[in-house]
Design goal:
Length: about 350
């Protein structure tokens, strides 16, 4: 009896689907290419020129890697994938931005139990759109089909970002002083954090589906939960171009204001936050009310409406406000720096 010949496809991996995905995403990837990109799509690695670093006295490479987390579950429920592509780029960009670095290159990693070319294209389309908006080149990526590692219907997304900064211009919070002003730039929603709790409240406690319209949110559950993570790259660049002295920045992700602001505070200083100055978004009010979530847990889990914190000297306030207003960036003065330790939300 002749044994059946096994193929890779029999093991659950389709080379053809992988090739089709590459064919679909090529135009999106190339749309992000800047003049600094040195290799075409499909090579074994991405390559980008660092010619611009020659203008810096002490050029430094700033890198970060992250994922979208359980927001991917919401994307799967709604079968909408472009927004999570934007999420991974914007989240990563903000993480290196707070050190004064501007992103130049990005790489993505998409893994699932089964490659679906249309899904891959939508994710990469979103990644590419976010890259173009921030002037980032998508230079390489990986699409992995791993049945047995991922459950049926599961997809994961991660990304690595690379940026440049002159070491003499690094923003690390060390210059923050008592009396400095804290500006909070508005978020567009949950961004990419707190989704395990948010999903429990929306889908288990409230018994809603992604297509259900919620009056308090003025949109469907899916539309609210899949709002892309906001990028602050362009607005911060405008502030720095106008020589605003930024002494510290904090990207408000998991841990909220409570956990993220202390990461930039010098010893002996405290960020005093007036919560009444923060326009808490309806989605956070909904989660707290429907889930009966303690207020302290809310502030330690979500951004609560503030996506980026910027610390500046008092004498820079008027000029910074003018720039933010001119560029229609929603913000509020949420507090100031005082003697003490950590964050005091009043």
């Amino acid at each position: 009896m002749t044994k059946k010949k096994l193929t890779y496809k029999d093991a659950g991996v389709s080379i053809d689907a992988g090739n089709e995905s590459v064919k679909r995403i090529k135009k999106h990837v190339k749309s992000t290419f800047t003049k600094d990109v040195l290799l075409d799509v499909g090579k074994f690695g991405g390559m980008i020129s660092l010619e611009k670093a020659k203008k810096m006295k002490k050029p430094a490479l700033v890198c970060s890697i992250d994922g979208v987390g359980t927001k991917m579950k919401v994307a799967s429920m709604a079968n909408k994938w472009d927004s999570v592509g934007k999420d991974i780029v914007n989240h990563s960009s903000n993480d290196i931005l707070v050190q004064g670095a501007f992103p130049v290159a990005f790489m993505d990693y998409i893994a699932s139990d089964k490659i679906e070319p249309e899904q891959i294209e939508q994710i990469v389309k979103g990644i590419s759109e976010a890259c173009r908006e921030a002037g980032i080149a998508l230079i390489a990526g990986e699409t992995a089909e791993m049945p047995g590692v991922y459950e049926k219907g599961e997809t994961d997304l991660a990304g690595a970002i690379y940026g440049l900064v002159d070491a003499e211009d690094v923003i690390d919070g060390s210059k923050i002083k008592e009396g400095d002003v804290i500006l909070g730039l508005a978020s567009d929603g949950l961004h990419t954090n707190g989704y395990s709790l948010a999903r429990k409240v929306f889908f288990e406690v409230a018994g809603l589906n992604t297509e259900d319209y919620v009056e308090e949110l003025a949109c469907s559950v899916g539309e609210e939960l899949l709002k892309p993570h906001k990028s602050y790259v362009n607005i911060v660049k405008k502030l720095l171009d106008k020589e605003i002295e930024i002494r510290g920045m904090a990207h408000i992700t998991g841990g909220g204001l409570v956990e993220n602001i202390p990461r930039i505070l010098p010893k002996g200083t405290c960020a005093v936050i007036n919560k009444n100055e923060i326009d808490v978004l309806p989605v956070f009010k909904f989660i707290q009310e429907k889930g009966n979530v303690d207020e302290q847990d809310m502030w330690r889990t979500f951004n609560m409406g503030i996506g980026l914190v910027i610390v500046i000297p008092v004498n820079e306030r008027a000029k910074a406000v003018q720039i933010l207003e001119k560029n229609k960036q929603k913000f509020t003065e949420i507090g100031s720096i005082a003697k003490g330790c950590g964050v005091d939300i009043k």
